[in-house]
Sequence to fold (629 residues):
Amino acid sequence: MAPKRFLQTICLCTLLCAFPASAAEKVYIYNWTEYIPDTVLRQFTAETGIEVIYTTYDSNETMYAKLKLVDDDGYDLVVPSTYYVNKMGREDMLVALDHELLPHLGDLDPNLMDRPFDPGNVYSIPYMWGSTGIGVNSNEILPETIDSWQDLWKPEFKGRLLLQDDMREVFHMALKIKGYSSNSRDPEQIEQAYQLLRELMPNVLLFNSDSPRLPYLAGEVSIGMIWNGEAWMAQQENPAIVYIYPQEGAAFWVDSFVIPKGARNIENAHAFIDFMLRPEIAKICVEENGYATPVLGAIALLDEEVRSSPVIFPAARIVENGEFQTDVGEALPIYQQYWEKLRTGQ
Amino acid sequence: MKSRTRTLIIALIGFWLVVFGVLPILLLLFASFLGQDPEAFFELSFSLDAYRQLVDPGYLRVLLRSIWLAVLTTVFCLIIGYPFAWLTARLNRRTRMLVLILLMIPFWTNSLVRTYAIRMVLGTQGLLNTLLLHLGIIDTPIRLLYTDTAVVLGLFYLMLPFMILPLYATMEKFDFRLVEAARDLGAGFPATFRSIVWPLTLPGVLAGCIMVFVPTMGLFYVASLLGGARQLLVGNLIHQQFLNARNWPLGSATSVALIIIMALMLCVYWLFMRNLALRSHQP
Fold:
């Protein structure tokens, strides 16, 4: 074969192989509903050429069950809450992250790094953190009259409350009222919380954790639980929606990026995580989602109005008064069992 | 040639039934007898735990509530569907076709989408409340969405055609001269209905009731979108066990219970039809 001909063939073959390969660069992301703005996803694809296949879930349990089900041909990136990072790490479901591929890592809030649920951030990088408190429509209910979780138990709210469809957050309320830690592993305390929650059930109109703000905006509910970010988004549409940090303490949580075992596009997943850690991208996420970011550089970029919003960035004493969710280990099935009983009306 | 095509078609249908009907049910039955493992979906060991949990009072109550809602839906469908089918069957051929087409058109839209549409009608700021407020019939919006009423209404709306079509099929063949004859012989409306129309349309009534009742218990998304905090239908329970609680044995056992209820109803239907056939052959 003439050298020229040979070169041509090689070039052609490379082209043939390379083209479909680059067109097929993908990253499969499985995330909470409305948690990454569309503009951010589009910008990622525009910059890197990596197509994002994006699906959503509305609870850690659903995400976990789906991951177990698809096993080794599944998602490249999921965003569990801390206690699921811990659980999934323990069950060998996660890929250790390559910190070399994450140059923006140095800019993260040291308070949110190297936490007990994932020492050294081997498996997880925090994406956003926020709280669960009380949402009130001030056109219907005077916000001054509501300052504690206990207020939700008032008989006048019969059939009117929205609760998050999230086991740990619902138990948080009752455990806090009882004066226990919301990360309690004591079966007796959990049972007491369950008994208290049973009394709350007649007040509950619905459970929602896709977009809890929508029933508030549609006038279906005027009081209940809500995430701070959802309250923030609701306020953009209707300023009457107020977010209240209950005096027993709000539930605080961190959601982190992790790469599950069985991910096929591990490098792309790293590229995506690092993209999300860029200050200007993290800034957009804060503005659109209303949750706080661990990216310190992004906080400096925010408008004063956003940065000083107590809904997104609560004062230190409010955070201290609340409690961050942590792993409950072997107590998780106990919670689950009572949660199911609550949901089936026992 | 013709018989080969026929064999092929029968083989295809048989294959379809085995792969998508028999095998899944066998798998379900198998899974329902497995042990439970909170880490995985099941444990490979024989266990009756799932069935024990099934007869737990809490679960039983969901089952009973589900049956009750399905009964309500079926009764409402029958009350509206029966006169509807009767009037349709009496129309002239062209109008009849038009009515049937209008009845079928909503099926071109996915039922999930239609359920969302119902939400827009029933919501606090929905069409119905806005209309009633404007007309001055009510002062404050009525709570409809997230109630049992909304669930039954949604189920009724989705299932009505399944009641009307079998009824219409029987009534279309109905000899309306019998009604005239009864009237000539002096029977009033109640007597005509009781002793002629009802017995002769009963097969359609039964077929319609089964076609409405059985699927109703599984339409979990209607209950989750329109219903409130309580889990209402068996379908929701199954959905919960498979997708959230990771308890496949319990989810399977619940499905098996549903299949048994369905089979029992079909048995009743079959026995009844056989009786009817036997009776009509007697002089």
Notes: Chain B has twelve helices and two strands. The mean pLDDT of chain B is 90. Chain B has one domain: 28-281.
